[in-house]
Amino acid sequence: ACSQFSQRSCEECLSNVSCLWCYTNNTCLDYPVRSILPSSSLCSLSNARWGVCWINFEALIIAIAVIAGLILVSIAVCCCYCCYCRRRSKSRPDEEEEQLARKREERRLQSLQRKHERKQKHDEIRKKYGLLQDSDNPYSRFENE
């Protein structure tokens, strides 16, 4: 079926997807389905066209290989990145929890220190005005007398 498009044009030949156009002798050939690549005895890869006339078979194979390689590399990079993020996210909450616990403990200690300082000031004021029952203070308030 493809041989009837020989000596015509590449576009007419490639309108049928099972055809291969060879620029060396302007022939339209049946695509060799049994082998993935057409043999060089049939037509050289640089002169063979399949699918579109503006790109030769050799460039088409290289372009498809490069695109497939980029897709595989990007998938591998994404997988590695996701594994790295997952491992990092598992370790990070522990660090964050420890950091939060440390900060909480620091705030608690500061609060206790401020509370102790307030208590001391209040006790000093109570002693000054005789409101604190202190046995060593001679000026303490006498009750029930």
From TrEMBL:
<dbReference type="GO" id="GO:0006606">
    <property type="term" value="P:protein import into nucleus"/>
</dbReference>
<dbReference type="GO" id="GO:0005737">
    <property type="term" value="C:cytoplasm"/>
</dbReference>
<keyword id="KW-0472">Membrane</keyword>
<protein>
    <submittedName>
        <fullName>PTTG protein</fullName>
    </submittedName>
</protein>
<feature type="transmembrane region" description="Helical">
    <location>
        <begin position="59"/>
        <end position="84"/>
    </location>
</feature>
<dbReference type="InterPro" id="IPR052304">
    <property type="entry name" value="PTTG1IP"/>
</dbReference>
<dbReference type="GO" id="GO:0005634">
    <property type="term" value="C:nucleus"/>
</dbReference>
<keyword id="KW-1133">Transmembrane helix</keyword>
<keyword id="KW-0812">Transmembrane</keyword>
<feature type="region of interest" description="Disordered">
    <location>
        <begin position="107"/>
        <end position="145"/>
    </location>
</feature>
